[in-house]
Design goal:
By secondary structure, the chain is an alpha/beta fold. The chain folds into 3 domains: 1-97, Archaeosine Trna-guanine Transglycosylase, Chain: A, domain 4 (Roll); 137-268; 287-506, no CATH class. The chain has 13 helices and 22 strands. The protein has a 7-stranded parallel beta sheet with strand order 18-19-17-16-20-21-22, sandwiched between helices. A 5-stranded antiparallel beta sheet has the order 1-2-3-4-7, with no helix packed on it. The chain has a 4-stranded parallel beta sheet with strand order 12-11-13-14, covered by helices on one side. Strand 5 (67-70) and strand 6 (73-78) form a beta hairpin. Helix 1 crosses helix 4 and helix 5 (297-310) crosses helix 12 (480-495). The longest helix has 21 residues, at 248-268. The protein binds calcium ion (CA). Calcium ion binds next to strand 16 and helix 10.
């Protein structure tokens, strides 16, 4: 992807745009606060109306119906004639059709492997199943929402009374949720939340310790939750059943605390050991994107993703609706036709899921995305997939499935930040990288979240929430490659416990949110 900068040198106050691809007939204004009418770019183009920051300017006159090109791709069609120097806002852009899945190419442009990157390590917690934790956390799973307040109460007491005695344990986290009863537990869609809960309890950051709190009469019985290829039921009782308590709430809590303490003792014996970067399972996500996300933060994350793949790690990208319009590009990049077909099958499943719900992918861009200059889902998707870097797609998993593959993997999830994060945790994520343009104080309890701003204005306003400012790419203070290396090194530092993210510093933990495509009874 080549870049033509409207202005190469500082000061950034000069009118400046970024055109991603030489074919593009629109470019994105990068000046903070936008640009007024009459602004003249170094190429000679003059704005005939004001354009907000991160919004698009027409580089030439566009006829009605003419293709609007960004990322070298048709992101829409002009609804009426647009003069060069105009603000190409959302209202002027008609949305194109999504690529037909049946016509998407199968592994026709598989990238050659990049040179291996050796010698990068982090200090992690090695687990019995071979996975590696970046944090040492006691996880307490639940089968049903009925148990959640009791488990939350027990966790408060465990943190206050037990955790201080086990200084090598980082945290105690309850996996509470709204599933487990009042649902059609045998409907096809139920497999998704059930396997999600199963795999969440096996997240590498839980050290292979298992503790499940059950009510007793719920539809999602512990045996159903724990059943699976990764069944880790030990001889030791791992399940506390609240309805077995004879002496009320006090007994329930005491039982949970006894089971918890046995696990805290074992977790506390663990120490970090040097692990190769290939033990990382990094989940990529974006939320609150703007039009700069696709030229700053996401390409920098994509560069870091390539470095991780070269180092042998697993890197997952997700968010089906933000990938759908690039389906033809991703399927072509698959390592094999089988991987391409797996990917297209997930796309087709989601098309049908949205159709049944009376929606389509056009429901995706939020009001904030649009204020941030994203005209539609096509433009958002082209920027979003930049996170996936340039390597071959090696594997695909469905929502809630666990990844066993190294390299770049597509984990199919909705784009909703909390649902995507939850499903990536179930897939085995031990590090999370999150890009944002509009800003969100997002964080997860189960894995560290590194937040990257697409614009420096956000990074400056939220200096105590944003970990890396990729907006410096827009102002030519730095490059995609430099920020990519910065992200890669920060992933290793945070994974190894040498650094903490802002979300960890403040203890910002969004709730887990299950994806349940099945019916509720
Ligand atoms: Ca998202």
């Amino acid at each position: 992807m080549s870049k033509e900068h409207g202005q190469i040198d500082k000061p950034a106050a000069l009118p400046r745009y970024i055109r991603v691809d030489p074919r593009d007939n629109v470019a994105v204004v990068v000046n903070q606060g936008g640009l007024p009418v009459g602004s003249r770019f170094p190429c000679g183009l003059v704005l005939i109306e004001a354009v907000p920051q991160a919004h698009k300017v027409a580089l030439a006159d566009l006829a009605e119906g003419e293709s609007i090109l960004r990322y070298g791709t048709v992101i829409g069609f002009a609804k009426r004639p647009i003069a060069g120097g105009s603000w190409v806002h959302e209202g002027l852009v008609a949305q194109p059709q999504a690529p037909a899945l049946a016509e998407c190419p199968l592994a026709t442009a598989t990238p050659r492997p990049l040179p291996a990157l050796d010698g990068f390590t982090f200090e992690g917690y090695r687990n019995p199943d071979g996975s590696v934790g970046t944090r040492n956390i006691l996880g307490i799973s639940t089968t049903v929402q009925c148990t959640a307040p009791t488990v939350d109460y027990a966790v408060r007491r465990i943190k206050a009374e037990l955790l201080p005695r086990y200084p090598h344990v980082d945290d105690v986290v309850a996996i509470t949720h709204n599933y487990g009863c009042g649902v059609a537990i045998d409907a096809p869609g139920a497999a998704v939340p059930i396997r999600t809960l199963h795999n969440l309890s096996l997240n590498p950051n839980f050290g292979g310790e298992l503790l499940v709190v059950s009510l007793g009469c719920e539809k999602l019985q512990p045996a159903k939750l724990l059943d699976g290829p990764l069944n880790v039921l030990t001889e030791e009782p791992s399940v506390a059943v609240l309805q077995d308590a004879q002496q009320g709430f006090g007994e329930m809590v005491a039982h949970i605390m006894t089971l918890a303490e046995a696990r805290l003792k074992r977790l506390n014996e663990r120490r970090r050991v040097s692990c190769p970067a290939s033990d990382l399972v990094v989940g990529l996500q974006c939320g609150g994107s703007d039009a700069l996300s696709g030229v700053t933060a996401n390409p920098a994350v994509g560069f870091a993703a390539d470095l991780l793949v070269r180092a042998g790690a697993t890197v997952m990208f997700s968010e089906v609706t933000e990938v759908r319009d690039a389906a033809h590009l991703i399927s072509a990049r698959a390592a094999t036709p089988e991987v391409a077909r797996d990917f297209l099958r997930e796309m087709a499943w989601y098309d049908e899921y949205l159709r049944k719900g009376g929606a389509d992918r056009g429901a995706n861009p939020t009001p904030g995305n649009k204020l941030g200059g994203l005209a539609n889902i096509v433009e958002k998707a082209m920027g979003s997939v930049a996170k996936a870097g340039s390597t071959a797609l090696m594997g695909v998993v469905g929502p809630g499935e666990r990844i066993t593959q190294k390299g770049l993997v597509f984990a199919a999830t909705p784009a909703s930040d909390f649902i995507c994060g939850t499903l990536q945790l179930a897939a085995g994520m031990n590090m999370h990288v999150f890009t944002t343009g509009r800003g969100t104080p997002y964080g997860l309890a189960m894995a560290p979240v590194i937040k990257i701003a697409s614009n420096s204005g956000l990074a400056e306003r939220w200096r105590d929430l944003i970990d890396i400012d990729a907006g410096r790419i827009a102002t030519a203070e730095t490059t995609v490659e430099e920020v990519g290396w910065e992200i890669f090194r920060m992933i290793l530092d945070v994974a190894g416990g040498r650094k903490r993210t802002w979300a960890e510093h403040w203890g910002l933990h969004n709730d887990l949110a299950l994806f349940n495509p099945g019916p509720v009874t």
